[in-house]
């Protein structure tokens, strides 16, 4: 029986030494943890800043980009831009007959042919003249150009 105990004593001593070597010291644990953190987060810490003008992710593939600085940044108004101005500033509500005359409801007010409608666009006051009411459309004059706008009833 003593001989068996003598066999187990060196075995237990060897296991105790192996266990002591397997446990790193607290300083070693800290160094290993910092190494792992640097390995994982190193690329993020030295990441390049995003581009100043990133591509728009909402454009369709193959779409042509619009030049943000055209040759003429302040174009003179054309019929299409005037129509856009009218669409933004005038809310057409339909037509009404008052005293036998056809009138157009614009921004909640009734106007007859020949009346001038005063509107504001970007802090600028504009005068729009109602030339003709011909259902289903009306003809306005803005900047000496006639613009036809469809009336929704």
Structure description:
The protein is α+β, with helices and mostly antiparallel strands. The chain has two domains: 43 residues; 72 residues, no CATH class. A four-stranded antiparallel beta sheet has the order 4-5-6-7, covered by helices on one side. The longest helix is centred in the first third of the chain and has 21 residues. The protein is rod-shaped.
Give a topology summary:
Blueprint: H1 2-22, H2 26-45, H3 79-89, E1 92-98, E2 101-106, E3 109-111, E4 116-121, E5 124-134, E6 137-142, E7 145-150
Antiparallel strand pairs: 1-2, 2-3, 4-5, 5-6, 6-7
List key phrases describing it:
3 helices, 2 domains, four-stranded antiparallel sheet, alpha+beta, 153 residues, three-stranded antiparallel sheet
Can you tell me the number of structural domains? 2
Average of pLDDT:
79
Order of helices and strands: HHHEEEEEEE
Overall geometry: rod-shaped
**What separation lies between the terminal Cα atoms?**
111 Å
Number of helix segments? 3
Ranges where pLDDT stays below 50 over 5 or more residues in a row are: none
Secondary-structure-based class equals: alpha+beta
Strand content is 25-35%
Could you describe the largest sheet, including whether it forms a barrel?
Answer: 4 strands, antiparallel
Helix content range of the residues, please? 25-40%
């Amino acid at each position: 029986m003593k001989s068996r105990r003598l066999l187990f004593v060196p075995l237990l001593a060897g296991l105790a030494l192996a266990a002591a070597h397997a446990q790193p010291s607290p300083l070693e644990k800290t160094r290993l943890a910092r190494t792992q953190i640097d390995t994982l987060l190193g690329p993020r810490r030295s990441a390049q800043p995003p581009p100043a003008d990133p591509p728009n992710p909402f454009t369709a593939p193959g779409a042509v980009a619009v030049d943000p600085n055209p040759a003429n940044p302040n174009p003179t108004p054309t019929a299409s831009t005037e129509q856009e101005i009218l669409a933004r500033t005038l809310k057409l509500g339909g037509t009404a007959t008052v005293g036998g005359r056809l009138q157009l409801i614009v921004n909640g007010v009734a106007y007859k042919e020949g009346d001038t409608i005063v509107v504001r666009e970007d802090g600028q006051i504009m005068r729009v003249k109602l030339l003709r009411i011909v259902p289903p459309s009306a003809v306005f004059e803005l900047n000496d150009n006639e613009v036809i706008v469809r009336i929704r009833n």
